TrEMBL record:
This is Thiol:disulfide interchange protein DsbD N-terminal domain-containing protein. Keywords: Signal. Residues 1-21 form the signal peptide. Residues 42-137 form the Thiol:disulfide interchange protein DsbD N-terminal domain. It comes from Aestuariivirga litoralis. Pfam families: DsbD_N.
Amino acid sequence: MWNRLLAGLLCLVLAAFAARADEKPYRVSLIGDGFDGTSWHTGVLVELAPGWKTYWRMPGDSGVPPDFTWTPSQPARIEVGYPTPARHADKSGEAVGYDREVLFPVTVTPDKPGDIDLKLDLFFGVCKDICIPAQASASVSLGTSARDPLGSLRVDTARAALPTPGDAVTAAEVVTRDGKPALQLTLKERPEDIFVESTTSAYFRAPVFSDDGRQALLPIGSLGDASKLKGQALTITYLTGGKGHEQTLMLP
């Protein structure tokens, strides 16, 4: 009898470990189906287990930016909005992204009026003690009669919180500091953080501020030849008062 009980308990423990091993540290869904007369507004909700994070479109020193693959039931223009990220430190250096959860607002504008079924295949990265690639699929039916008002409210809130146009950066140039390239920015005021993107492989690290916050120096990594930045258009996203702003600036 005792042998049977022990065997049963062992089976339960092994089953629990197997179930836990199969659990993923993330969940992906499409929520919201608001319609403004021309476009539908839905959103990609990525929920993360405690301690896990995922990445922005420019992921930092390493990491995997999200790759959205859409399959609409009819031709449509699909635009994804990226919430303002945060900078995190991990074993591989700096990571730029989100923790706990993130909602990417999505605007779907069909070529012709009519309801539309939308499928998403998402390839992205998640990271805790280790970083792993992740894949998920989700779908939503978008019609003129809303079926998910609470989800639509969350999407509207996320859309309103997206970075807005800004002009805090007045000049940018590539300089050399301690024999290494860096991006020097002239600012109207000191932001809380600055994220810079270019079409090159350069990663612009966390800013070091000087001159009462009117100057910022961002060391440049992952770029062998700094001359590749000459004439580049930079997308600069910065955080001020908890609100994100975005502007484009040309390098000389």
